[in-house]
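tokens incoming
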């Protein structure tokens, strides 16, 4: 297949995701059925110790290795290997619908949208604090135009122009990228959008770790620079999947 044929690169950072990665990849294949010849799926094995890479290969994905345990570096590694004109970053514990993917790619192809994200739903209905935080995040995301890390899309050239994901950050790198793309978009008279439609189903496993979640909120509130230290971003890096 000639490189010029690839328009869409779907990038999945994955660390020990053997339990959920297959569902993610199956959903991406279904979502891109109509344009399969123009699409590549890249799984970035972020130093996994399980069968993540093997599952990715069996599902037909291109596998890239990133040895440094950091989500930003893993996503950047996938983008570096990507051939597409448009980049889509999807978490390994997330599935997306055909309708959502097609809407996102139409936005990019219009030439008026530099990138964006979408409304997030969980694999099962959250309760209590988790439900409150989801509603709060949804409001913030829509109001400030900030994309959740489980689904981000943008032009590849814009991604390169803003320097990709900030590798100084071990968390919130998707918010930083959203801000950089919005700023670039203003200069180019393009918008950054949050699609208010169903289509993303992400795992609620982080929200189920109530005490860890609360501890993370406290640490980040008292010490915002914690996002630069992997040890303090324990919600994302401390647990073994």
């Amino acid at each position: 297949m000639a490189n010029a044929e690839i328009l869409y690169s779907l990038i999945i950072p994955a660390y020990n995701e053997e339990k959920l990665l297959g569902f993610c990849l199956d959903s991406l294949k279904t979502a891109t059925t109509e344009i399969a010849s123009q699409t590549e799926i890249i799984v970035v094995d972020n130093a996994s110790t399980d069968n993540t890479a093997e599952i990715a290969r069996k599902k037909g994905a291109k596998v890239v290795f990133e040895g440094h345990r950091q989500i930003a570096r893993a996503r950047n590694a996938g983008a570096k290997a990507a051939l597409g004109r448009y980049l889509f970053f999807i978490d390994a514990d997330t599935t997306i619908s055909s309708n959502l993917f097609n809407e996102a790619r139409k936005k990019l192809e219009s030439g008026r949208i530099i990138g964006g994200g979408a409304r997030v739903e969980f694999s099962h209905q959250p309760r209590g604090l988790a439900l409150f935080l989801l509603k709060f995040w949804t409001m913030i995301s829509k109001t400030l135009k900030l994309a959740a890390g489980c689904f981000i899309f943008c032009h590849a050239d814009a991604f390169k122009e803003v320097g990709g994901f900030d590798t100084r950050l071990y968390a919130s790198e998707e918010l930083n990228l959203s801000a950089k793309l919005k700023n670039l978009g203003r200069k180019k008279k393009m918008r950054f959008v949050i699609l208010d439609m169903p289509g993303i189903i992400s795992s609620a496993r982080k929200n189920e770790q109530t005490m860890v979640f609360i501890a993370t909120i406290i640490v980040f509130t008292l010490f915002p620079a914690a996002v630069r230290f992997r040890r303090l971003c324990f919600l994302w890096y401390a647990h073994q999947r």
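note: The domain at 3-203 is CATH 3.90.550.10 (Spore Coat Polysaccharide Biosynthesis Protein SpsA; Chain A).
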